[in-house]
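In this supplementary section we document a worked example of the pipeline. Step one takes a protein sequence of length 332 as its only input; no multiple sequence alignment statistics are reported here. Step two produces a three-dimensional model, which step three serialises into structure tokens for compact storage. The input and output of this example are shown verbatim.
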Amino acid sequence: MTDASTAAPNTNSRNARRQRPDMAEQLQQLKAGAGTDAGADASATQPAAPAQQQQQQQRPPRAKQQRPHGQQQPQQGRKPRGQQPQQQQQPEAQRAPRKVNPVLERLFELYPQLFGARFVPLKLGVYEELIARHPEDFKAEDLKIAMGQHARSTRYLESVAAGHARHDLDGNALDPVAPEHVHHAILELHRRRSQRNPGEDLRPQLVTRIAKAIEASGLDHEAYAVLVRSRDANNNAVVDEALAELAQQAAKREALLRAFEASGRSEQEFADMYGMKPGDVTRTLQRVRDDQKRAAAAAEAAAAAAPEATEVPAAAPQAEAAPAAPEAPAAD
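The serialised model returned by step three reads:
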């Protein structure tokens, strides 16, 4: 009894498990609309499956066509992207190409090393020399206008601001550009860059470039300041900032020299001790020594130019008596 009773549930459970696929097929038949007959043949359900798949494949396009208008805005937003290149090309197409002065074209043909891909500063009086060399090629007024355009070009100002030497018509390098001309070229380039970049602070770059021009001029700092000062308070302030920056750099170099002399070490050992490159230490120390020599020579020249300032022997006794003043507090 117990064996039969226990065997029955097992067969029933197995049959139930075997019937599950049939129930799934019946559900597919119901969904596919093949009929409600539970005993439908399996072969009858097979043609219904492709029909169901076709209907399911056709549904997504209907949903896309019935998409609300608000959801189509991203597709409409893509159109300006395709139109952007056309909008960017329109201003470029409207820009008319710059007309090159025919006189400058002729100068390029005659002197490509001066008016070609690379501009160099020209010697003073080159206008008169061009008229004398080419009286049939240039009219005086036309050449004057063309030379003015060339001298005001940014490329030419860059060559002047760099401090390159002036050249004659044969391409020979002559004297360097005067410091005041270099200074004014730097200011003009800064003005043009400021107009192109109104939101950018270019003043630190201007101060650094003026400081380099002061050093390259070979003039005393005060002499340079007197040479380039003008009525423009802003430009004068830039010169003062550049001089202050140079003074700070000189003070750092002098401090390095004092530290080196006090260390009693070689330049190599001193560089290793402070984590510096030996070459940088050598150049810095040599520069400080050269600056000190120039300062001493300038002081001697100033003393020789004003001999009356050195003739004050009567003031010497008074200066020697000055140290007696601190002795009174010391007695107290």
